Fold each of these.
Amino acid sequence: MVAFRNTDASGRTTGLLLRCVLYSLLALALIIIDKRYDQLGRIRRVLSIVAYPVQIAVASPFEGWDWFRESVTTRDALRADKSKLEAELRLAQFRLQRYEALEAETARLRGLRDSTVGITDRFIIGNVMDVDLDAFRERVLVDKGAQDGVFVGQAVLDGGGVVGQVASVGQLTSEVILLSDATHAIPVQINRNGLRTIAVGTGDMSRLKLPYLPTSADVVAGDLLVTSGLGGGFPAGYPVGTVAEVKRDPAQSLAEVDVKPAATLDRSRELMFVWMKPQPAATAASTTPTATPPAPAAAPKPKKTPTPPAARTNAE
């Protein structure tokens, strides 16, 4: 209690404890009055208005620093998120391109499979390994050879139509001459009227020609050319191309007919080697046994007529 004692000029001792108790009771009374009657609310509101600028002035430096740090952190986070999203976008685009390529490849393979139904005996699919860069040769190298059963002259197709035929065969690879090669020719017929002719290459992958049609031939632009099957090199009924242009010169005996190939000669990556089914006539001829003609019946021997006795006597 010594700390709460004090001595004034008169010598009387005043206690700080008494004043502390009085102030505490006063504060408690004010709290009760404010709680019950809300008498100090107006004063508190006025004081809050007066103190608000002070609060702003005191809190502004700290709030400014927090805002700056958050802004810098947010910008860095946004940059990191942007880089991450860009990487994910590039990966997604790469995968999408791969999926599109796989989808296109599946469509091509399905087209190759569907185009052989009922016509070929069997087929295999090869991939183009190399393209001949010679301007006068339209040939490609494929990863199928003699070990796969490929032979010279074999028909080669893609999902659109006839591509060409095998020109030479190695053990593991083979060289395919395209329809557009200037030295290649294929027997065809016009699907509309059955007119047969020969399509030859021009050295241009986008154009064939029909050089042996007279000017009076029934051929018009848009006619579909299919293989005729003559010669046994190509199965009949496969698309070769579409007539693009027909020029008739009265002074010439032959028409100039340009054909757009049905196959994508400059873009095909998968080629199909086909084995044709045996022709029905040849099959029937080979399977039907030759009938042996029956042996001619022996002529009956004439019966000997007995001679009467009187005749024998006269003869004697």
Amino acid sequence: MWFRRRSGSAPPDTGVPRTALAFALPFRPVAKLWLAALAVLVALLVGQPAAGSTAARTDVTIPMDDGVSIAATLYTPDGAAPAGGWPTVVFLHGLAGNRQQMNTLVEGYGFTNGPYAILTFDARGHGQSGGLVGIDGPREVSDIRALHAWLAARPEISDTKIGAWGISYGGGGIFNSLVAGVPWAAVVAVQTWTDLYTALMPQGLVKSGVVVGFSTSIPADRRDPSLDAVLAQAFAGNAAAVRAWAAERSSIAKLGSVTTPVFMAQGRRDFAFGIDQGTRAFNALKGPKALYVGLHGHAPSTFPAADTGFLMTRARAWFDCHLRTTGCDGIQRSVYVAPENFTGQIARRGTLPPVSPTFVSFPGVTTFAKSGKLVRTSAPLRKDIEIYGAPTVQTSIAASGGWSRLVAVLTARLPGSGKEILVSGGGVPTKPGAQKVTIQLINQATFVPRGSRLTLTLASSSTAQSAANLLYLDLPMPASARARVGTATLKLPGLRTPVTK
């Protein structure tokens, strides 16, 4: 489920059509689900710092060049600093988060045991920091650069061994600062983006539920006014305007020149930032690199997850190797894919896993209005398929009366239990008249066992499949809108060697 119900909050003015807000705002945004999941981690770990931790903890305020103050917490190990200063890791939180969450994380997973200094901070427009949220734009990158310089200037900190760990919004900030020349010695980026446009407006159709969820997690008085303008452009379908805004907040075009050691962790099932955000970066990067595809992520996944301990151990090993030059054996150019039934063991390989396609046909011709839908179900699958990548749906559509988009949702009903799982979804804008379309679904990993039946739903929104599926909202369309859809062909990329048993 993408959102949960909330109460007592007035909708901010986002520039999104009122019908979209009326539908989406009674529910808790996607970012809030991540915060709620992280609260579980806080409850488990708060008051229980890692055994043996003697780090001194100091809250500080660091001024930026525009007069805004950034609130931060600095941990320094006990005792005299080594020659050249302590290696240091900066932790960056997610959208609508704060440094207290990162403090719990670093204390709970042993990062304050030494031999690292640790800096956490409230990003601009968050927590106790001043300023407005601009979604990891140039202003936020300047803040990150200033924080790095502030650390490097301190006598107890090594100015050449400063790394960064960031999640979601924080991970985007790491990538954007990296390509802007901030001299990180090593980085770890978790469930984030490298191309914001393809993440949130793939194929020119905005993931409206995800975008509304993220935008409403930022209080109106802490949002940069430019966000409202770009939201309006996204919901109006102005792909060019959104692409230009997103390009300024994306790193993918410049990652080919990066030689900094980069460890990326994407979720198997993250409907905000798919696996492709990491695999494209993995292919582009020229330096030491690793990709971990695990159980964490935005909805329908969570952070923390069953494999978070393993992930944090791998992150620590990455910093140990590249900030302390110890324990580097076997971690360079690594790809890890966690099974859905994670029990502590994960196979590692040196390249991205190979896939083979499976094709499923959904024959027929169906005509429906805006409130209608096409629903077709396959025969039982003859073999297990561990989907890995972006499924595609090819079909023909004759659009009339103002029909403007086609959304696909793929579900699977499992044998035995009869449980239905949401596999993926996607959508494309449509033009008047007859046309062939290819809908690329979200890039993810889902194990579908033999005997399952796949169901394909085609409509004007994902809510046609389920009222709880707010990936693509039920946005306005003329009452006269009609769509006539023909045979659909589904292409499923599957791991040649499944990791889930």
